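About this split. The held-out portion is used to measure sequence recovery: a designer receives only the structure tokens and must propose an amino acid at every position. Recovery is the fraction of positions where the proposal matches the reference. Here is one held-out target exactly as it appears in the evaluation file.
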């Protein structure tokens, strides 16, 4: 693989919660190694306020975050993606556009915190859970020995990270 930083696109349907959280985590955890981006197949147009609150509480810069269509990343001049991760079942089952450069992809589905109903505390806890799961997965990904893995081995590891239910996958 070429030298980092590698561009990663996190895709979800609405691009208002999970993919936004993942974008921020990738930029922090993978600083210098990865550049995170996010997009949606049917973007809501706004970032969920609970996602913004959580990120601010954890001292992330939220100034440039916005809900955007994945078509932005298929146009000429778009960042060259090396990895594309789908984070929700709807996006995983939709036909994805062809991204320039044929990035490696995997499905890292997890529950939508924006879909949780109940008390404010319960809803905010769902965002914290999504953040924790994404942080664990991205941390494992960031610690993979990318330079020493062939494409098939890397694809297998990406799929394993996404399939982990107990969130204890370790880099090999």
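Reference sequence for scoring:
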């Amino acid at each position: 693989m070429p030298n980092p930083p590698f561009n990663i696109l996190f895709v979800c349907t609405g691009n208002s919660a999970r993919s936004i959280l993942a974008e921020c985590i990738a930029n922090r955890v993978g600083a210098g190694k990865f550049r995170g981006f996010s997009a949606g197949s049917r973007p809501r147009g706004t970032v969920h306020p609970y996602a913004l609150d959580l990120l601010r509480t954890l001292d992330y810069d939220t100034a440039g975050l916005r809900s955007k269509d994945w078509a932005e990343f298929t146009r000429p001049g778009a960042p060259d993606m090396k990895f594309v991760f789908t984070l929700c079942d709807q996006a995983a089952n939709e036909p994805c556009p062809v991204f320039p450069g044929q990035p490696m992809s995997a499905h890292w589905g997890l529950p939508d915190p924006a879909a949780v109903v109940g008390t404010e505390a319960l809803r905010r806890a769902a965002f914290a859970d999504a953040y924790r799961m994404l942080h664990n997965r991205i941390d494992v990904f960031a610690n993979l020995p990318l330079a020493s893995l062939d494409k098939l081995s890397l694809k297998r590891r990406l799929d394993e990270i996404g399939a982990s239910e107990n969130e204890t996958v370790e880099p090999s």
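Annotator remark: The two ends are 18 Å apart (CA to CA).
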